[in-house]
Amino acid sequence: MEGLALASAVVEQLAPTAARGSRHQAGRHPAFVPVAAPSIHVRVAVTWVSIFPLVTLGMTVMALLGPTAAAWPTWLRALMLTGVVVPTAVYLVVPRVLALSVRWMTWRFRRNRPPYA
Known about the structure:
The chain has 117 residues and is mainly α. Helices cover 70% and strands 0% of the residues.
């Protein structure tokens, strides 16, 4: 739940909204364009893109530990893996990937709109 709140806070800070302004008509700089918050589908894709490499890396590290990690019960290996992957994803990776996706969506929106008169 805190991860969703953090992601929402990142989106609010990075994505200009109508309240903070489409500045092109009021004599302001046209670089700021309103962008809607990412859909649930985009957030799912961002989360998956963030977590998959971390889980792969964690499983590789556990495989390299060899007999040490193999002797642990499954629940302990899962606890160790998720104990590293989840905080890393929530606090480091997902906000950065989400920021990149918002920048990409903003760039796409600006590229596809007609030029100003």
